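LOG
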Amino acid sequence: MMMLVNCSGCRTALQLPHGAPCIRCSICGAVTNVAAPPAPGPVADPARGAQAPAPAWGPPPPAAHGRKRAVICGISYRFSRHELKGCINDAKCMRHLLTTRFRFPDDSIIMLTEEQTDPYKIPTKHNIRMAMYWLLQGCQPGDSLVFHYSGHGAQQRSYRE
């Protein structure tokens, strides 16, 4: 069930998804915080006749109705003086999150890392562009598309092209 709130910046009516603590306005970019609903009371435990605390986890994320696809890049710049630690681990963690929490099928995720043995799954400029093409190919409203990148953010000229 959606709740209507007014943007704190431009006063535009926004639809707040159930359970969301805040929402960003697509018009002015302001973030509107919403007061959290009161916490549920304790849950009765008939076996002990006592009150047990309510579970601490929230509701599962809303189900997406469309197709799910993801491209995940982890680039550590191995064997260079700019080598990064943890980028490939970040990519693996993102894959785990998408498959376990958000139920992305394994075959709907392309992983591009320097660990890959398949030359088409190494994160080169060409392979990243091809993976992005695959990600967007045939997308429809309601699809869930994810692009995750872990690595340096600077661009350098390649003299090999």
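LOG (cont.) second protein
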Amino acid sequence: SRCLHGRASEGKMSCPICCYVHTLKDGASLPPSDLLLKFMVESSTEERAQCANCDSTAAQMFFCNTCMQPLCNQCREETHRAKMFSSHDMVLLTKRAREVHKKCTLHEEPYIMFSSEKKIMLCINCFRDMRIESRGHCLDLETAYKQSCKKLDLRVQAFRELQNSVRDAVLLFKTLLEEIKVNADNERTVIEKLYISLMEKLAETRDLLLQKVDSQFSEKEAAFRSQLKSLSALLPTLHVHLVISSAFSGSANKFEFLDLAYVLIERLNSIIQKQHPLHPTQSGQIDTAYKTEFFKSIEPLLYVPL
């Protein structure tokens, strides 16, 4: 947020990276906080927990949501081996249920259901307050978690396909830029050879043809560079969102997942559904019809009356 202070002007703020203009709410000096990125930052900066039993710090740690204690793998096996611990909820430390995501902020009751209609988790009081017709859209947390995982996987797969398409398009446009350079050079060479054989008579035509080549080259180069610039700017955005998606899926427990997954899904959808310049609007050919033009220029001189 320190990087954005002072950038607001007339209720708007432009992104210092992509220059996107964001409209601020009345009285706001900064855009609203990004809950998804905030979660990712907090997850990545959390201190590594020590085992509650042996005080060691292992690469792979677990967390007992019943005991509310972190455990290493060895202590997990030793302390929870007895039958009386069989019902304890043991998960990876990164998947532990944080209290902020377990209870309803309105009623201070634990979440028990998820509304697929409103994309929010519900406690028993929230469920009772819902309209009868809306209750049919409620699922238990485990089912909602599995369905949401599948939906995010589908969106991420579509996002990967878009990333691959953008990479292919970037290579295509780079090839086209090289192609138009080669074709332009070849065209100039042919034009120059014909010019030499008709040096004086075709001097004027040669200049006109070279101007036409330069014009076509400039036009196509500008078009391809514009599309290439747009796609090159898009790749980091795609990469960042894929990293976020992967990190989020690996670090969020089901409560956090259901709380934030649809924010991520909607964000991925908005980028996927945008029109991206994946295909060239012009060919890479440079063509001046030089033979016809040369023929027209020398036709009066070569005309043989019957």
